[in-house]
Specification:
Layout: H1 12-19, E1 23-24, E2 30-32, E3 35-37, E4 44-46, E5 66-67, H2 89-93, E6 102-109, E7 115-116, E8 121-124, E9 128-134, E10 139-145, E11 151-157, E12 170-179, E13 184-191, E14 196-202, E15 212-218, E16 224-231, E17 234-240, E18 246-250, E19 269-273, E20 286-291, E21 301-307, E22 321-330, E23 340-343, E24 346-350, E25 386-390, E26 395-404, E27 412-421, E28 428-435, E29 441-449, E30 455-462, E31 469-475, E32 489-492, E33 508-511, E34 519-525, E35 531-539
Parallel strand pairs: 5-7, 20-25
Antiparallel strand pairs: 1-24, 2-23, 3-19, 4-15, 6-35, 8-9, 9-10, 10-11, 12-13, 13-14, 14-15, 16-17, 17-18, 18-19, 20-21, 21-22, 22-23, 22-24, 25-26, 26-27, 27-28, 29-30, 30-31, 31-32, 33-34, 34-35
């Protein structure tokens, strides 16, 4: 029998309520007709051995600091909401019993810089783990051998791959994704002028010596906080532009070299602007990135966003529920007038409080030992990366956001959720939980699912007695829904406070595309000065992606694990 027996039986009734599908019909907002921005995007081959690029100076404490301001339009405002305990946290705190076995494989420090924040991003490929951070001028990239953690290339400036124009001066906010469908890499940053998004795709499966294709696209406004996702027919993206958050479509099919030598010309990138949320001056949709098998044929891409009814101005907010918004992105690169951005029915979830650090424009409230400097938890967005996985019997999405736990003022915890749909039906809430086992603050969450359906949740932790560190928890697919059952483990231990409130801005977690079991994740922490911790762990129960867990639970039925 699955692992329900190791939970307190009194939790069973609570846990079952978390599996009950919940969604509400809303007027389906459909934005039709994308703006095809600019001309076709010419791909420029860049012949380079990454090992031969100039190596950037390794930052040391005392070196110059680059402070990156938060780009907020100032419209965030405090909302008078009564304090209440998060309705899911007590169930999590009652978890007892044996913990699923997890093997910690590698833990090492990556490259770090004097920029605040570092914006750490990284992904795992067939042979390498690539890391990128904000540097003193732009993005700094480093590659590591995934078997040993040994340095493979870098750190080098990402704009070393530029083919000219505005991307000669890259400025940061990097994103790295491994496109496992094609076996290629995508690296990105924005430019220091010209509203450029600088995109680089590896020409071959060898990112070190195989060369790159450089693409430059330019928005009409500054593309702050850009995020991207991989989908079979496009690279989907978003950025933060105040109360008019845009989404983007990049022509993935023509941004991948067909022969390892040439770089095709991509059709013009497309942009649509979605609806803003009241109460926020910083907001963005989060792209949903593909893990594992491809989605069903012709499936649209997705974006996700959370909506706190009180904070975000719903006219009749419920005191017991809030919303996850899900948007379909159906792109026609040949006729942008046919492209649609469609809001699906809201997913109703348990009440959460996004009003951390009020007023919202103050941002920072996570304490550290021995200093008055407090850290920014990034409450406004579903964190990088939201992920999608197709099990055949069903499709699933994962996301994590920061919430006020409510047991004392501005106590940051991790609200995570899994959405599912079966047979092309509606997306529904399958499970959700709030992880906050004690009085420490958890923030900058990252989450992913392996081929078996096991989930790992990583995050930063800090408090007045705990220096900024990286920890994780997790659960097996057959565990009681809504609960993390892995005993929290610390993989990157802090020993000093951060000098700036700007902390990370995002972390990232991905799945090894070869075994579809090993989780790789990175984030900032503070051992003595700043550092980037890179870690890999694996559930012992994962069968290297060769066998998919199947006992009825995978179809969404709870009968397989009832006594």
């Amino acid at each position: 029998m699955p692992r329900i027996g190791r939970m307190e039986l009194c939790l069973l009734g609570v846990a079952l309520t978390l599996v009950t599908p919940a969604f509400a019909e809303v007027d389906r907002t459909v934005v039709r007709g994308a703006q095809a921005v600019g001309d076709p995007v010419v791909g420029v081959p860049v012949d380079v051995d990454l090992r031969q690029l100039p190596t950037l100076h390794a930052w040391q404490p005392g070196d110059p600091i680059r402070e990156v301001p938060r780009r907020d339009d100032g419209s965030g405002h405090p909302v008078d909401t009564p304090a209440q305990l998060d309705p899911l946290v007590e169930g999590q705190r009652a978890v007892t019993g044996p913990t699923p076995a997890v093997t910690e494989l590698l833990s090492f420090d990556g490259n770090v810089s004097g920029a605040n924040p570092n914006d750490p991003t990284g992904d795992i490929g067939a042979q390498y783990f690539f890391e990128a951070i904000n540097g003193s001028g732009g993005t700094s990239v480093t590659a590591y051998d995934k078997a040993t953690g040994a340095l493979a290339a870098g750190p080098f400036a990402l704009d070393s791959l530029s083919a000219g124009g505005v991307c000669n001066n890259g400025f940061g906010d990097p994103i790295i994704l491994y496109d496992h469908i094609a076996g290629r890499w995508l690296l990105s940053e924005f430019s220091s002028s010209g509203n450029g998004m600088c995109i680089y795709t590896s020409r071959t499966a060898d990112p070190i010596t195989g060369g790159w294709c450089a693409y430059t696209v330019q928005d009409s406004s500054f593309p702050d906080y850009p995020k991207f996702g991989v989908w079979p027919d496009l690279y989907l993206g978003s950025s933060q532009q105040g109360n008019s958050p845009p989404v983007y479509a990049l022509d993935r099919v023509n941004m991948l070299s067909p022969d390892g030598v040439s770089c095709p010309t991509a059709r013009p990138f497309q942009k649509l602007t979605g609806s803003g949320l009241p109460g926020l001056g910083f907001e963005a949709y989060t792209p949903v990135d593909l893990d594992g098998p491809e989605p069903p044929a012709n499936a649209p891409a997705y974006f996700v966003r959370h909506r706190d009814e009180e904070l975000n101005g719903d006219p009749n907010p419920s005191p017991t529920t809030d919303k996850i918004e899900l948007w379909e992105f159906d792109v026609d690169f040949d006729n942008s007038g046919n492209t649609t951005f469609t809001q699906l029915p809201d997913i109703v979830v348990a009440e959460f409080d996004s009003n951390l650090c009020p007023p919202i424009s103050v941002f920072s409230c996570i304490p550290q030992p021995g200093t008055s400097t407090r850290l920014d938890p990034l409450l406004e967005v579903v964190m990088n990366r939201a992920s999608y996985r197709n099990f055949g019997t069903h499709e699933t999405m994962l996301g994590v956001l920061q919430v006020d736990v409510g047991d004392f003022t501005d106590h940051s915890g991790e609200r995570w959720f899994e959405l599912r749909r079966t047979g092309g039906g509606p997306w529904m809430l399958f499970q959700e939980g709030t992880f906050s086992p004690d009085a420490e603050h958890r923030f900058m969450g990252m989450i992913a699912m392996d081929a078996m359906g096991d989930i790992l949740l990583g995050y930063n932790v800090s408090s007045s007695t705990v220096f900024p560190s990286i920890r994780y928890t997790g659960r097996l697919v057959g565990d009681s829904p809504g609960l993390m059952t892995v005993v929290e483990s610390e993989v990157s231990t802090g020993g000093a406070s951060n000098s700036s409130s700007r902390y990370g801005d995002y972390n990232q977690m991905g799945i090894d595309p070869i075994d579809d079991c090993t989780f790789w994740f990175l984030g900032m922490y503070n051992p003595s000065g700043k550092a980037i911790g890179i870690n890999s762990v694996k559930f012992d129960a994962c069968l290297d992606g060769s066998v998919i867990f199947s006992d009825g639970f995978e179809s969404g039925s709870t009968s397989a694990w009832l006594p």
